Amino acid sequence: LVPIGGGGLISGVAAAIRELVPDASIVGVEPDGAPKMSRSLDAGHPITLESIATIADGLKPVRPGDLTFTHTRDLVDQVVTVDDASIREAVLWCQGQRLVVEPSGAATIAAIASGEVKPSSAGATVAVLSGGNLDPSILRSWLAEAAGGAPTGEIRA
């Protein structure tokens, strides 16, 4: 599972995986508020979204690149979308595992946790957790809300 912003990461990862493990299933994940690649694949060419709305800043490009669209079309088996609530829950789950993962990278965990992607019984499931660029004040707020309280300024593991 690989997060999709403009398509560069998934293009490179998919090319490497196809070379090393040709039978692997490659799944791209993007927020449902910025589904530029899935809509482009449906259209058969790169499209530009008129608007985007997601907490996953790194997945906000409004259009995939021409080359990355082609690579994704040719190398990726499936693209799924996840909602912001699932992404946020995934960020908090990662924090509980002592991983600081930004919402963009946590989208892959959200895809599994939400049931959009079912881990394969045939082999390992790999989720790329890209980026640790998470504003500490946002994380504190999310942790406090998850605990049922107001932000304290402390991050508890």
Entry summary:
This protein has a single domain, classed as Rossmann fold.
Question: What does this entry look like structurally?
Answer:
This protein has 157 residues and is mainly alpha-helical. The protein has one domain (2-147): 3-Layer(aba) Sandwich (Rossmann fold). Helix content is 43%, strand content 8%. It has helices spanning 8-20, 36-43, 66-75, 84-96, 103-113, 136-147, and strands at 2-3, 27-31, 78-82. It has a 3-stranded parallel beta sheet, with helices on both faces. Helix 1 packs parallel to helix 3 (66-75) and helix 4 (84-96) packs across helix 5 (103-113). The longest helix is centred in the first third of the chain and has 13 residues, at 8-20. The two termini are 26 Å apart.
Based on the model shown, name its key terms.
157 residues, mainly alpha, Rossmann fold, 6 helices, 3 strands
